[in-house]
Amino acid sequence: xxxxxxxRIERLRTxxxxxxxxxxxxxxxxxxxxxxxxLFAELKELEQVNxxxxxxxxxxxxxxERPLEGFTTVRHxxxxxxxxxxxxxxxxxxxxxxxxxxxxxxxxxxxxxxxIDGVAISLRYERGQLITAATxxxxxxxxxxxxxxxxxxxxxLVLLGGGEIPDVLEVRGEVYMPTAxxxxxxxxxxEAGEPAFANPRNAAxxxxxxxxxxxxxxxxxxFFAYSIGEIxxxxxxxxxxxxxxxxxxxxxVNPNIKKAGDINEVIxxxxxxxxxxxxxxxxxxxxxxxxxxxxxxxxxGATGRAPRWCISYKFPAEQSETTVESIDVQVGKSGILTxxxxxxxxxxxxxxxxxxxxxxFDELGRLDVRQGDTVVIExxxxxxxxVVEVKKKLRPARAVRFKVPKKCPNxxxxxxxxxxxxxxxxxxxxxxxxxxxxLRYFAGRNQMDIEHLGTSLIEQLVDTGLVKNFADLYKLxxxxxxxxxxxxxxxxxxxxxxxxKSKLQPLWRLVAALGIxxxxxxxxxxxxxxxxxxxxxMAADEETLAAIDQIGPTMAExxxxxxxxxxxxxxxxxxxxxxxxxxxPKAKRGDKFAGKTIVVTGTLENFTRQQAENTIKQAGGKxxxxxxxxxxxxxxxxxxxxxxxxxxxxxxxxxxxxKFLEMLNS
Length: 666
Ligand code: IVH
Prior knowledge:
Elements: H1 2-24, H2 33-49, E1 73-75, E2 85-86, H3 89-103, E3 110-116, E4 119-126, E5 129-135, E6 141-143, H4 146-149, E7 168-176, H5 179-191, H6 200-208, H7 213-216, E8 222-231, H8 239-248, E9 258-260, H9 263-276, E10 284-291, H10 294-300, E11 302-303, E12 306-307, E13 310-314, E14 319-331, E15 336-348, E16 351-357, H11 361-367, E17 374-380, E18 384-390, E19 415-417, E20 424-426, H12 432-443, H13 455-463, H14 470-473, H15 478-482, H16 489-501, H17 507-513, H18 521-531, H19 534-539, H20 542-546, H21 553-564, H22 566-577, E21 597-601, H23 609-618, E22 622-624, E23 633-636, H24 642-650, E24 653-655, H25 657-665
Parallel strand pairs: 2-13, 21-22, 21-23, 23-24
Antiparallel strand pairs: 1-6, 3-9, 3-10, 4-5, 4-7, 7-8, 10-13, 11-12, 14-15, 14-17, 15-16, 15-20, 17-18, 19-20
Helix pairs in contact: 1-2, 3-9, 12-13, 17-18
The structure holds 2-(butylsulfanyl)adenosine.
């Protein structure tokens, strides 16, 4: 029986890896996402019941539950060099002349690749297993970001292919964030009151430097492999063939690589991407041109920090000029005032741009953007339109400097600048502008997810005085809504039905929907899981909140203060009276050791120490390396040593491995 389970687990792992390969490397999935999820779920379940069979290279083990304290450093076996840049065809020709001169012949060719705009990473595989993943750092020494890189599904934990895998293979490539993932991440961040990332590269870099891999796992990072660091036996004589072999090993290679016989072909390929790149679902900031053969690369060598056999070609940044028709100030859900420039519509990188955020009043002041100004706009990372320059010479004679508002444009109340911050906020808790934004957020897809309750309906509900807070939404009748503009009986009924349905949303959605400062979807999930009910969360003191893993003191204070506010409490009471019934998180099998602190000591039969600790954490428990009065019990294997004695002294319960397994599977 146990043998059958082991076999099934191994079979499932092989299957999942094969489907990862089909999906990420060949781009030819054979099964639907659903079928894949089913395989994965079966594997996960079998491993949960048989934790002693879990291995670190199992596809289920990508995400470490234990946050890091910091990053250790890794010395690259072969330095990670940088590249020289070119900006036009002439500079590319000059590069080619240097190559021809260096080789003393014209007998060479190039590989042309996209220059992915992400973060360079070195993956070290030993005997086919991913051992470390490190950032470039200063080229010699980088940060060990293995825990985070392991969460990227496109990065194989185990190389594929029997027998032909070099003992040591350092694969280099780019971790990047696809555009759609970047836009979605920024949307979520701005909803949670967190600053947006300026571009996908920063977002990818930030995601790799998180101490908690569980958050990285949600960032939808991707990966392309494009070169080799250390290697124990060569994969091929040239780069092109190496990349083909990468694919056989299960490593994703960008599908747009091209061979070029001479520099004219290189130039054609590069220019061909000037427009085409805007249709990719990730950003590239140029092209990379590499001499193909490795022996020729050796002859060419490197200058300082960059090799002579490779060069990048950078696209000119796309910009447009337009005029500022007006400057608006918008009020956000937490009262932040944001200046926005309304522009004469203009084409930029494939879209029509009519508005550009000016971020905050410090930035607006720095640029000194005025109504009537001619401005240069650029898309930050090709995505968010930004004003980068004001053409002061073209400024109309009477243009006046934009005044930082002293009052809220929506409710006329006083505003104040955040202490040590850049934001200016409306201080009026009853500001209708803020209320509209709060309601929009409450009903949003990632919160209470109330279909049909859109911006214009919310505007009307607030303006007519029908809705003054979240609870009022649940008191609405079809007749109230049906009389509003653009609302027929049927659509009114749909809205009311959607509102009604949201009453039974899970607790975390309600916690997120309240719009508590610093609390986004993820932290709401942590809170909901920890407390299990709204009542328990509301009663929690600041210390208890701050003690929760990943809830920092700022979040703890914010949650605590939110629930101490009388108005907030009244609204929540009303929500509950109107029938909102947040659903408790389901008790998981993984709650067996919830709230327990366990010390593992001695040699276990079925687990390594690490596996036992992971199992405890998966079951909701905490582990500690030393026995104290706070320890709930000690799991003792063979030769348990001093921790066992200490437990005896303190009267802490000691359990055997057998008992531990029983508790886990009970
Ligand atoms: S090859 C000697 N290929 O560009 C350099 N780099 O500016 C070997 N990059 O740090 C790197 N796409 O992060 C190479 N197809 C590609 C690339 C690429 C993006 C990045 C990489 C490197 C930077 C140099």
